[in-house]
What we know:
There is one protein chain. The protein is an alpha+beta fold. It has a single domain, classed as Integrase, DNA-binding domain (Double Stranded RNA Binding Domain, 2-Layer Sandwich), CATH 3.30.160. 40% of the residues lie in helices and 30% in strands. It contains three helices and four strands. It has helices spanning 5-10, 63-78, 83-100, and strands spanning 20-25, 28-32, 38-46, 49-58. A hairpin with a 5-residue loop joins strand 2 (28-32) and strand 3 (38-46). The longest helix is centred in the last third of the chain and has 18 residues, at 83-100. The mean pLDDT is 96. Keywords: DNA integration. Pfam families: Arm-DNA-bind_3. InterPro entries: Integrase_DNA-bd_sf, Integrase_DNA_bind_dom, Phage_Integrase. One of its GO terms (biological process) is DNA integration. Residues 3-87 form the Integrase DNA-binding domain.
Amino acid sequence: xxxxxxxxxxxxxxxxxxxxxxxxxxxxxxxxxxxxxxxxxxxxxxxxxxxxxxxxxxxxxxxxxxxxxxxxxxxxxxxxxxxxxxxxxxxxxxxxxxxxx
Length: 101
């Protein structure tokens, strides 16, 4: 069952733990640190290896937006591309364009 906005807002991590993860569904989860920071991640498998993709910080990235980003990344994965690698390539391309222009 997906996380509600109230559950995301109230999510907390005890000080004695490094982090706590709250599952949203289909590999998406909210990771909460003891300092209160909350970040969305998508866990997926590519070439037989487990990977994770950062999708944004909560509340800047709402649960609905995180789900949309997960779905976009899933489409890349289904097309045979590694979403994390695609993000790195896109970032390098943006830097190259900024330097040349």
